[in-house]
Amino acid sequence: MISGPPATITRRHAIGAAVGVGSLLAVGACVVPDSWPGITVIGDNYRAAAPADAELSVLQSNLGHPAPGTTPGSLLTAHAPAVTSDYLAGRVVWLSTCVISITEARIAALWALRPDRA
């Protein structure tokens, strides 16, 4: 479940999260790389919490149109500078005990909308 940041969040917290958490798909504490169904849950939760980012066209506008066979990991690699920028600017989403950047949340949301979703 996505929740708001603590009342005392600072840029230092965001940088600490970037160092401690790394990226959404690179750290098993948040999501196992590319295959764990939890990324779909994160994407669905983010879309529910951020209606402005809930539509496929909006996500594609922000992230581009992934080619067939693209994985969340490859999307993260392609958007690594944006992820770093998000953490440094404090653009993060708090998810239970995990914090991820807005770009990572959007990648999860885009993945949750993939056509082959079971």
- Major sheet details: 3 strands, antiparallel
Q: pLDDT below 50 for ≥5 consecutive residues: which ranges? A: 18-29
Which range does the strand content fall in?
5-15%
- The helix content, as a percent range, equals 40-55%
Number of strands: 3
How are the strands ordered across the major sheet? Answer: 1-2-3
Rg estimate, integer Å: 13 Å
Compute the number of helices. 6
Number of domain units: 1
- Category from helices, strands and their pairing: mainly alpha
Q: Give the CA-CA distance, first to last residue.
A: 21 Å
- Give the overall form: globular
Order of helices and strands: EHHHHHEEH
Question: Key terms for this structure?
Answer:
globular, 3-stranded antiparallel β-sheet, 6 helices, about 120 residues, 3 strands, mainly alpha
